[in-house]
Amino acid sequence: MRIMSEMLQYLENINLYMFSMMNATHGSSPLMISAGKIIAVYFIDIFPLVMALNLFSRERENGRTAYLATLAGGLALLVDAAIRSLWYHPRPFAAGTGYTWLHHAANASFPSNHMTFAATVAAAFLFARRTRRQGIFLLGISLLIAWSRIYTGVHFPLDMAGSVVVALGVLTITYRCRGPLVRPWLYLAGAMSAFTEQRAAGRAKRRCPPARVARLRRRRKAANHVKPRTIGAIEQRQPAMMQLNNTTDNAETQTKAMMATVNSPERPHNHLGHRVVDARPLVADD
């Protein structure tokens, strides 16, 4: 027990030191304080918006990831409530530490609900292949929220670290048990995606009248049948083309033989030096 208490005291000292380094003071920039307030209060609304957009997306994988993130986020918040009920850790202003720039209830600070939900959703989108870019974006927003909650004096750095541990643990369990836990959500996601696809098909049908669709189908069908007919015609013409080629080759062979006979050196020449086909005199028959 003594070793455990010493370790907890050591962690608490590190926690207080990091909080004093990150907390805004009266000498801080008013613009930074205003930005910290806005991020700490309103940036958490980005996560439900991204989840809703993916729920109604045409990509079914995006919808499934959003439903999985919703389920994991809800379970993570339940774990947060259980931890807070079992162990109370005061907020900085309740412990008389640092400066507070936001009005907040003096309830338990460990772990942070904002950071738990944000980290769970960001990790769920980051681990999915099709939503990885959105996960990177949400991870950046999560880091901004963690900084702003410490900067405005409503949370300790240890609260944010505990929230990340809770988020990853709950998300891992959710992925491990996603068969029985997530199957109803996946069916609902598939139904929503099918509904979205039907709506998109209806809009496309209104933009493209049925007569035009039928005309395009006929053209496509005619285009698909051109190639087989052409191939069949070529196959039918191949024997005739081969016979014509043979006839041409025979004619060329006969012509070459005749020219070789005419140009033979054994043939006699006339007085002009030209070869003649037959130099024998013509003798009339008796």
UniProtKB/TrEMBL annotation:
SMART domains with a match to the protein in the record: acidPPc
Gene3D superfamilies reported for this sequence: Phosphatidic acid phosphatase type 2/haloperoxidase (1.20.144.10)
SUPFAM superfamilies named among the record's database cross-references: Acid phosphatase/Vanadium-dependent haloperoxidase
InterPro entries in the cross-refs: PAP2/HPO, PAP2/HPO_sf, UPP_Pase
Annotated transmembrane regions: 31-56, 68-88, 108-128, 135-154, 160-177
GO molecular-function terms, A-Z: undecaprenyl-diphosphatase activity
Cited Pfam families: PAP2
Record's protein name: undecaprenyl-diphosphate phosphatase
Taxonomic lineage of the native organism: Bacteria, Pseudomonadati, Pseudomonadota, Gammaproteobacteria, Enterobacterales
